[in-house]
Amino acid sequence: MSRVSLLSDLLSSIGARSWFAGEERPQSVDVPELAALCHRLVSSRGEATGVRMAADIIHGVRALDDKGIKRFFHMLAEEFSPDPVELAEAATAYASHPDAEALVRLQQIAEPPRQELFRRLNLAPGGTAELVKLRERLLPLCRKDPARLAPVDKDLRHLFQSWFNRGFLMLRPIDWNTPASILEKIIQYEAVHAIGNWDELRQRLAPADRRCFAFFHPSIPDDPLIFVEVALTDEIPASIASVLDPDRAIIAAEDAQTAVFYSISNCHKGLASVSFGSFLIKQVAEDLKEHFPSLKTFVTLSPVPGFSAWIEALPKDVLERLEPAEKRAIDIVSETDWQADPARVEEARPGILSLAARYFLRAKRGDGQPLDPVARFHLGNGAVLNRIMHMGDPSRRGLAQAHGLMVNYLYDLPKVEQRHEAYAAEGEIAASRPVTGLLPGRGGHTLKDVA
Amino acid sequence: MSRVSLLSDLLSSIGARSWFAGEERPQSVDVPELAALCHRLVSSRGEATGVRMAADIIHGVRALDDKGIKRFFHMLAEEFSPDPVELAEAATAYASHPDAEALVRLQQIAEPPRQELFRRLNLAPGGTAELVKLRERLLPLCRKDPARLAPVDKDLRHLFQSWFNRGFLMLRPIDWNTPASILEKIIQYEAVHAIGNWDELRQRLAPADRRCFAFFHPSIPDDPLIFVEVALTDEIPASIASVLDPDRAIIAAEDAQTAVFYSISNCHKGLASVSFGSFLIKQVAEDLKEHFPSLKTFVTLSPVPGFSAWIEALPKDVLERLEPAEKRAIDIVSETDWQADPARVEEARPGILSLAARYFLRAKRGDGQPLDPVARFHLGNGAVLNRIMHMGDPSRRGLAQAHGLMVNYLYDLPKVEQRHEAYAAEGEIAASRPVTGLLPGRGGHTLKDVA
Amino acid sequence: MSRVSLLSDLLSSIGARSWFAGEERPQSVDVPELAALCHRLVSSRGEATGVRMAADIIHGVRALDDKGIKRFFHMLAEEFSPDPVELAEAATAYASHPDAEALVRLQQIAEPPRQELFRRLNLAPGGTAELVKLRERLLPLCRKDPARLAPVDKDLRHLFQSWFNRGFLMLRPIDWNTPASILEKIIQYEAVHAIGNWDELRQRLAPADRRCFAFFHPSIPDDPLIFVEVALTDEIPASIASVLDPDRAIIAAEDAQTAVFYSISNCHKGLASVSFGSFLIKQVAEDLKEHFPSLKTFVTLSPVPGFSAWIEALPKDVLERLEPAEKRAIDIVSETDWQADPARVEEARPGILSLAARYFLRAKRGDGQPLDPVARFHLGNGAVLNRIMHMGDPSRRGLAQAHGLMVNYLYDLPKVEQRHEAYAAEGEIAASRPVTGLLPGRGGHTLKDVA
Amino acid sequence: MSRVSLLSDLLSSIGARSWFAGEERPQSVDVPELAALCHRLVSSRGEATGVRMAADIIHGVRALDDKGIKRFFHMLAEEFSPDPVELAEAATAYASHPDAEALVRLQQIAEPPRQELFRRLNLAPGGTAELVKLRERLLPLCRKDPARLAPVDKDLRHLFQSWFNRGFLMLRPIDWNTPASILEKIIQYEAVHAIGNWDELRQRLAPADRRCFAFFHPSIPDDPLIFVEVALTDEIPASIASVLDPDRAIIAAEDAQTAVFYSISNCHKGLASVSFGSFLIKQVAEDLKEHFPSLKTFVTLSPVPGFSAWIEALPKDVLERLEPAEKRAIDIVSETDWQADPARVEEARPGILSLAARYFLRAKRGDGQPLDPVARFHLGNGAVLNRIMHMGDPSRRGLAQAHGLMVNYLYDLPKVEQRHEAYAAEGEIAASRPVTGLLPGRGGHTLKDVA
């Protein structure tokens, strides 16, 4: 019987089991029918009926074309929002007599029925994954018409933040023993340094100095949510090419001093802004440290996606006040094929580094946070901007977005908490002395001096 | 590396890993300190800090004694409810201008900050299980002081209904190959027919004609939520003793005609009214049918917990209008040791059965539902009251609560949905002809005739 | 199974654990040193020492170059054979007094000490796999110098027949959820219809109408011993191209009538003549039948590796007595690119089929068995030669070895035993009527008529 | 490992699958029929037929009563031994011309056909376990009639030594998460300190300072071969009572200094003299050291099964020459309830210890090995007799066999190999100074001095 159990487990956890499988499912349903089903599902008191209806709705929604899905979301916005008249009444009632009963009623009416609808749709086999895909279809529409669709998105996101709570996620290594069905998704999802084929994938996973880890949700066990690729090295590498070099000397994991997080990819657009990346990096760092006590340094090798655009957008007056080296660098990188000429590359170095220091340490968004999104992520996690590497990524993409720049963010585990707090509370950007020393005219000064 | 992965999985899924394990945890914290920590946790933007604080709070709460936990819940009620002044303002604002912005603000303020607090407490290792235990401590206090504590319970229940959504649960067989650490919980949780020791447990799990299934939540993988024990038999058994008889002829599962659900136990008081029992029975029935096509009949063997109390409470005028056989039965069961005298047992039979038919088919609560809680559960699932068995359970408990009565509820899978709807919508009690035929003076009539 | 045990299992079964890992292993050892170690290992009474020495020997042998390994095998032949003088004495003693004591002594001396040596080498981590590789290096040397090395091979084979006993093998499905580390071996080992890359592999494993199964040995859990690829189809396919066509209509496994075993590959040369292929086919057929009761027909789609060579070697007098159609066919297939001309292909058909019938039904080796090795395998398993397909495999290889011919062998499960016996005992070749009807001049007659 | 493969693994490894399950098996077969089947099985060339016949034979043999099984073994002895006439011819032929051909023939005829029979019986589902049970029934008969049955046993043992080669065994922890079906076997098999019930079992497995490990064979995955129970402690304990005390202070495994192997049990009589105990202890010691680097000392807490009997059997003249303390001790332990009187216990101490030193260090069997079987086992593994504890086991059994004596054998991992060799080669008994110091009149001298 234990055989049956394993199987049953898999079936139920994979969500592949059909409910009352013998009966037929509607092949194609239009939005009014779906709306009717949704209303029935929300008002039904019957649990089993719910599973069946949820499956039918999900099946029908999946079959909708672009036009249909838009109508479906509009329907959700219109028919599954709180009733404004009832809500106004409840609000008035509470405002005049703010007692417990009025509060409960107000809360009940204020919660959009969509939330209960989404919870019940999750009853369907594979429901969680389907709801994530649903949001993936919603988001672009939402960006075009936020007034109408943002409330729908808000409810889905609210639910996902509860369901994809870190407490529910499972960390799993991805390696050459991982099922091919999951590995093909790694190829597909890799967002930073593309994996061209299975041989390249093997290069990322199989060598003794490579690791990869992913978060999974128990209800979507065959599809990762986010993954990070790690290189175990002697020293902090100066470029992505040296990390990915298939001819490098491969060291034993037990001897490595440094763990380099060189690629982090989110897998599902439908989980946008439901963040678990910082948990992943920190837990992987902790786990690696436990298994390989020789590891001393945990750094990223990160792109600088906003650098070129920031230079491009520098106002004229600022441009004029730049240091000569900086001006020269800007001139050089605007030439064709400058990166192919070692002399020019060297000539641009001081200016690029100086500009980079400005970009990271001084350039701020309206809310006072750094311009660079990757910097915001890692600094927000409590990492330190550790090193800026000229020509760290001379790929077409690296040149286009950052004139070849790459950086390391250092995760100094014992101080991560405190730095995270300092950044969150006071916006303090943690940077190493070599980095702050790059700021023009302030060599060797600490960040506080230059801010 | 696959080794590490398995381990890491287990660790992370079991939730047993410590976060930044090297550092010390506070040994004992008082409620004001916990309150401060809770406020910091809710307002913190930092994810990693959150894990740490959540673990500290959970650790501190677990250490609270009865007085402390009461104070802690009061604190949650007072400090983590919506701010009435702000909410009244938002309500007024919405009432006067019910636009999208006012709605969002109203919703935000109406949602108790407790919900976010509970979501963040779930970040802690083992957080989900701890929150369930938290509610177990809350419920008795809540019953004594609902005005103050019901809102706290409402938020926990709301969260649990989302997290313990059927879509997230895993069905697993429990058998003699199950880890002892789980089996000892089955012994502990069995609520219907007690399991005295491991040999009795083996009798329930190991024989070829026995099955047991449980729902688990992926974040609490070593502790079942609810389980059902099943006997595979030729015919519908007439008593629990015949089901549990260790000397019965054991049949091969492949030859069984009937699956008898003879015990269903919820495992966690903290999950009260977060119901998944009906899903369990239906899914187990489906699974069994798939594996053993010879199974034709799915019935429960159920207690009748309210029967004795109902007779006890019959008003005098009703008592007088009972049939003579019914009166005689009431007299007999009030005698000492009547059950030991076969002649009396037989003499009581017609009256008991007639009374039972009244109890199930006519006696109603204020809300129109049947008096018997077990009947409400199974009829609400779409089952049929199939058979009433005099002396089905002559145990001390069976005599005390039901004068020895047991019943079968029949799960007729193809009709379960429709019966569930009929019951939910119209309160229609589905009963077999033999049962309705027991109603005094109406032998052979349908239920509608006698209602 | 408990979590911990699974992990431990992996650790111990992968055989990757080092023994007294801290100490160093000899880097390179010459054959005399290895010989000395082997003698010590065989004579040692200590088990733990044995593990260590076995690991050292295996390590040293693996490092030997072609010359070294030859010397090593010669050393095994010379130094680990029975002592001829002692054996002659024991033989004489037994011949004169054949009592129990003399028998035991004779047996002890007759068993080559190599067998005990090999058993002790298996103590080393990964020892079983290493011994299989050892025989892979032995076999080509043995073919060149059987007088000297056949006894060494005989001992290894004897051991493998005991260790790779069907009772120890595990059947496992290979599918798209199988670890990549195993799948890359499937690509590498496929011997019949080559798999070019991972996309082609996916085509063989992932579609709903494909299955693949392999035997594994528990001590070599990450490397299959033999595997079979299966297509689930409506009807018996007429060519391999139709089976592998990526644009075919894919049917649900539940609806399939026919299981086609279209490729069987042994994975390890070191296991040559340690046969488990027939077990694999029969067990897979049984398993498929159990899971998919709609399956009625189990056939292979098999190459005919000896057909072209047989025609080539026909003596002149036989050639002259062939039917005209047969002669014509032989002429056609000797033309260049005949297969590209549909008219010629059709013209050759009757003669090819007639020749094929002769080849399968009449051509015999010296020992009375069919010439074709694939035929010997399947007929020996109790299968029936069911159908001969002209142009079933028009690939370069198919044309070269069989003028495009393919055949089906039918596994009629209830009769497999009896046919196997008839074939083994009387050499009876089971063939369908359509096949026997192809024999020239005997259309419609049974095989016994034509033999 | 992929999900599907795990399942399939279980199916195939549990060995529960039936072969051609639809057909009937003979219910009861007599020995002549079994003999005929055995002959057919050995001579059959067909593999599949073999599986079927093997299953039938095993089924039939299992049903034999004591008389029947005896006849069956006699049949094996008579009908499956080498043919003495043929063998004498082959022996004569070899003796006169000892060439390769004559050798092969001699070897073939010298190997009893029983070996091939047993190998083929292993084809049956669950065959390996059945053959172990077969030998369990053989051994007592063999002891009564070795002349006739020892050769049968020799063949089974020969096969088991090959099949249960350490290279094939899996080490698994046994803990409170282990399936109950395996745990009940631990209760049943525990041979040293009986486990009374499941609560006592839990006491042995669940506390943080307890470990248990077992060897399994992959073909018998649900039944351990041998297991060892380990206590993690601060110091070497002075008695078994202090180890098993449920009220002891339980320490964290990470803090333990000492691992105490306090119980080792073989599980299957049918595997007698197929030894893997020394592998188990050493591997467990290595594993524990790896996981808990704080562990410094690995000792057993062992019984002294032969001590009382040795004293009993001391010849009169030796008795007379004993030291006065020794004589006094012998007097005391012959009194009733001496162990209940602390004064006497103390009085007996010096004499008992002195006698024990003689028993361990001087008393020898005919072959020069120590008298005590447990001593032979551990010293043979390379352990040191470390400490002798008066009243270490005051249980009824401990008093009866050893007047309460227990001892520690120390596994000093870096020296285990060398000590094992010294013991095997020169019979050198390794003992600590405190132990050798107990020898009468030689306090402080080394063992060589006193031998």
From TrEMBL, chains A, B, C, D:
<dbReference type="InterPro" id="IPR038917">
    <property type="entry name" value="Malonyl_CoA_deC"/>
</dbReference>
<feature type="domain" description="Malonyl-CoA decarboxylase N-terminal">
    <location>
        <begin position="80"/>
        <end position="164"/>
    </location>
</feature>
<dbReference type="InterPro" id="IPR042303">
    <property type="entry name" value="Malonyl_CoA_deC_C_sf"/>
</dbReference>
<dbReference type="Pfam" id="PF05292">
    <property type="entry name" value="MCD"/>
</dbReference>
<dbReference type="GO" id="GO:0006633">
    <property type="term" value="P:fatty acid biosynthetic process"/>
</dbReference>
<dbReference type="Pfam" id="PF17408">
    <property type="entry name" value="MCD_N"/>
</dbReference>
<dbReference type="InterPro" id="IPR035372">
    <property type="entry name" value="MCD_N"/>
</dbReference>
<dbReference type="InterPro" id="IPR038351">
    <property type="entry name" value="MCD_N_sf"/>
</dbReference>
<protein>
    <submittedName>
        <fullName>MCD, Malonyl-CoA decarboxylase MCD</fullName>
    </submittedName>
</protein>
<dbReference type="InterPro" id="IPR007956">
    <property type="entry name" value="Malonyl_CoA_deC_C"/>
</dbReference>
<feature type="domain" description="Malonyl-CoA decarboxylase C-terminal">
    <location>
        <begin position="167"/>
        <end position="412"/>
    </location>
</feature>
<dbReference type="GO" id="GO:0050080">
    <property type="term" value="F:malonyl-CoA decarboxylase activity"/>
</dbReference>
